[in-house]
Amino acid sequence: MRVTNVTVRAVNALTARWAGTAESGTVFSAAGVWPLLAFLADGADGAARAELADAVGMPADEAAAAARGLLAGLDAMPGVDSALGLWTKRTLELREEWEAGLPAEAHGVLTGDPAADQEALDAWAAKRTGGLIERMPAKVTDDTELLLANALSLRTRWLRPFRETPWQPEGGPWDGRVLLGLRRQSALLDRIGVADTPDGHVTELKVHGSDGIDVRLLLGEEGMTAGQVLGAGVGLLSDRSAVVPGTRLPYGEVGPGVRVVKERATTPRPPTLEVCTPAYEVRSDHDLRKRHELFGLTTARTRVPGHFPGVSAFPLYVAGARQTALARFGALGFEAAAVTALSLAGTGIPELRWIVTTVEAAFDRPFAFLAVHRPSRLVLAAGWVTDPAPFPEAEW
């Protein structure tokens, strides 16, 4: 089943909005969150239903069908593995209509032993991501009535590998560090381009992988934020008019990190693109409830009253919503994975004490990345790199 353009636009729009909150090194997958929110929207009522529908970008009564289409489309994509899991207490009765909309093999049972259930859920996450994510991000408690999870992973090998080399950037936040540099030459100048975006110029490098998956590296002007660079990259997926490809770039300093030069050579050769980028690995844990406005969970996270009568007659609220994500970019290829879990508990006495944690970080010259399904232009994973891999000391 092909992912519809409407769903692609909705998922990519959530990617762009989530990117707007990025402040430090991170990786995330809106494609892993979106179907879970869509299924909840289908079973929600009142303000929670309206907020979830706004978060997924379509009417709630259309969201479940779109989520099923997205999951089927992901399953059909080479190099991509996706799985949906639903676990409930034996005593929780689900609405037949809502349960029928989920894959039949997805439904499991919570035994009531939180430790044993957590171990089983961790094993599911590891198996469904090929070991990239070892634990389920949500924690099972005695109050957990229902847990809905999505596992998404992708692996691709570069059509042309990079060459590993020690690389010492001059200036900037990585000055003085010996990084694991990745270098490559190509006669395909259109793999790089410079875009004029509302927030500044952005350099875009497309690295083609096998199975129809690309990774796009994005470097913005100094002073541009993570959200601005990532948001620009998502926008360029649907609007290429702002991009000047490498074949049309003038001589000189033409964009962030890009210059075009004339030089003498001993033998003739066609115009060449020379690329150097650091290898990287990024890991992140996200508490989606802390960004409840972004994910339509403002009302759904409150304990009373119940918000999901379409899921179960038992009053439920979203007690936990988390995602764990990973991305690795190396000489031979790219791999990424995300496990997203929403846990629903029975409503009770409202919680009166909230502990809010704020993490502040400043980075000088980060770059962004998008892992994109080439035919549909669906963003599967996105991130912001601030701490690239060092070159192995033994070799250096």
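the 2nd protein, sequnce then structure:
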Amino acid sequence: SDISRRWEMPARYYTKTFEDDGTTVRVVFLDTTPLIDKYRKKADTYPDAVNQDADAQLQWLDKTLGEAKEDWIVVVGHHPIYAYTDKSESERTDMQKKVDTILRKYNVDMYICGHIHNYQHIRRPNSKIDYVVNTSGSLTRTPKEIDGTIFCNDSPGFSVLTADKNNLRLNMLDKEGKAIYVVSRAK
């Protein structure tokens, strides 16, 4: 955080509340690498992940979401919970067991991640959460549909999150800034 004025990252995992015009959005930022077992088993390659207390982070997540009273709750992490990818299935099953059970307990509105360099919007049966993969501004990978896929696209770009009391929208934009899809939630 002290290196660049453009980055604000006060801890490995943290929460921040944004308020505008009476609307509040809590964003919960996770450090997902220590939550995935395959990284924890490779101390030589991922020593930092091995040294983190994954249980402490999960307990913090549970407590933080349990105390959240904002209009909208968004959780952000690097690794997907549900998504098409050719990366190891164990990454997603670890995230499902460890993180998704807590997210569902508190009915968060959105889980947003990256890691696989494409756009995906997934709604799983028996879950009210919008699971979103955000693309990258560089290399992209071609996605395929999985159970619950609503949208997928391999455009490079970025997303913008907007909210008011009645609507939460994640606008997926291509590299020119043109909206190609909107994840929308209404109260």
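The domain at 14-156 is CATH 3.60.21.10 (Purple Acid Phosphatase; chain A, domain 2). The chain has a mean pLDDT of 94.
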